[in-house]
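User: Run a structure prediction on this.
Assistant: Running it now.
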Amino acid sequence: MPSFKETYDNIKADITKGEKNFNVECTMLKDGMQVEIKMGAKPHLVVIDAPPGLDGADMGPSPLLAILGSIGACIIAVTKFWAKIMDVQIDEMKVFSRGHINLGAIFGLDENMLPGYDKVEPVIRIKSPAPEEKINELMEKVFTHCPVITNFGGASAIKPSFKYRKSE
C-alpha cells in the first residue's frame, strides 16, 4: 500500500492517476427504518436507522446525522492531507457539526420549507504550535478543497433513477 507522499507524488506527476470511482450499496433491512450500507472493497458495514419517534429502533445514526458526521470527518481528513502538504503540525482537532432542519418539510406539511438542513455549521477546533496565520492559510485550503463541503454545497448534481420490479 503506498504512503500518502507516494500517492500525492504519483497524482502530482500524472493527474489522471487521481481518478477514482466509489460505490456504496444500501439495503433496506426488515426492522424499522434500518439500512445496511456496504462501503469499499473490504467492505465496511454501517447500519443507518432513525430514532423511535420516526419508526426507527435507534440502532445507528440517522441519515441526517451521518451527513453531519461525514462533513466533520472529511474536514479532518482534508486538514490532515493539507497539513502534510504544507508541513503544518496539528496536535489536536475536533469538528462539531451542527445542522438545523424542520422534519415537517420531509413529511410534505409545508411545501415552502426546505426538506433538508437549512443551516449547517461545522465548528472546528485546532491545537497546533504553528502561527495562527499559517492555520488560517491551511483552513482556507481545507474549505476550498473538502469534497463533502463541495458536494453538499451543490457543486455536483444528484441524478436519482429507479428500476421497478413487481413483487409476487
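The helical segments are 4-13, 63-86, 103-106, 132-145, 147-152.
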